[in-house]
Amino acid sequence: MRKLQIVRDNAARQGRVMSIWIFVAAVFALAGFAKGVVGLGLPTISMGLLALMMPPSEAAAILLVPSFATNVWQMGLNTGLRPIARRLATMMLGVCLGTWAGAGLMSEARGGWGGVLLGVALVAYAVTGLMSVRFSVTRRAERFFSPLIGAATGLVSAATGVFVIPAVPYLQALGLEKEELVRALGLSFTVSTIALAVNLGSTGALEMSLIPLTALALVTAVLGMSLGQSVRRRLRSETFRRWFFVSLLGLGGYLALAAL
């Protein structure tokens, strides 16, 4: 009987490991697809869904490499990036300082509120997208708001692993051209990813055991993003964005209520 129970326990563990691998692959394929179509959504979707099966800090650790790779791809390392980087320098500094100031917010000690904060962040982002909220920031006001928005984004990122609030609405308010906005988003997400990696490394969340799942997430995210970019040429992006935000609204509400 004891041997039979051991066999059953091993089979159950193997089944759970396989289900996690399949789930992670599906999550990052979907998140990469969304990023390929609308230019964002990989950390938002992946953190929201992975939080259903694992602690936020573990989900964020798996997210780092796929997020960095796809954001560098989106950002584009060419001469068009330099003026954007200069313009947003104080915002990026604020992102780093805010993220590092919030080190530990994602730890298990405060994990009870982690799901609530993540859910609220997703709901807030979805509502701004569905309402098509548009702000306008002048170049003069930009000098004042950029570091504050960066710091706020860093704190939200440190607590939830999501980089979009309030960075994305703010960048949209700057009146950037389409390609400039894509590069600005890529730059913001890349800096946020690096700053968050420092936090996770300092708290011991970057475990060697997560490397295989990280590699799987990277491959599926890149494949999903490639497919999304090809679909973007034939699909009305506004239609996709609407369903994208509706899905985030439902997911964020579920995470917040479940955590409460």
Folded structure, characterized:
- With 260 residues, the chain is mainly α.
- The protein has eleven helices and no strands.
- It has one domain.
- Helix 1 packs parallel to helix 10, helix 2 runs antiparallel to helix 3 and helix 5 packs parallel to helix 9.
- It is globular and about 55 Å long.
Q: In total, how many domains does the architecture comprise?
A: 1
Shape: globular
Helix and strand pattern: HHHHHHHHHHH
How far the N terminus sits from the C terminus, by CA atoms, comes to: 41 Å
Which regions have little confidence, pLDDT < 50, spanning 5+ residues? Answer: 4-12
Q: Give a quick account of the main beta sheet: strands, pairing sense, barrel closure.
A: none
The number of E-state strands comes to 0
- Rg, please? 19 Å
Question: Count of DSSP helices?
Answer: 11
Helix/strand class: mainly alpha
Q: What multimeric state do the chains show?
A: single chain
Task: Work out the helicity level.
Answer: over 70%
Mean pLDDT: 81
Beta content comes to: under 5%
In short:
This protein is mostly helical and 260 residues long. It has one domain.
Keywords:
globular, mainly alpha, 0% strand, 260 residues
Write the SSE topology.
Layout: H1 2-38, H2 42-50, H3 56-75, H4 81-87, H5 89-101, H6 111-130, H7 139-160, H8 167-172, H9 178-202, H10 211-232, H11 237-259
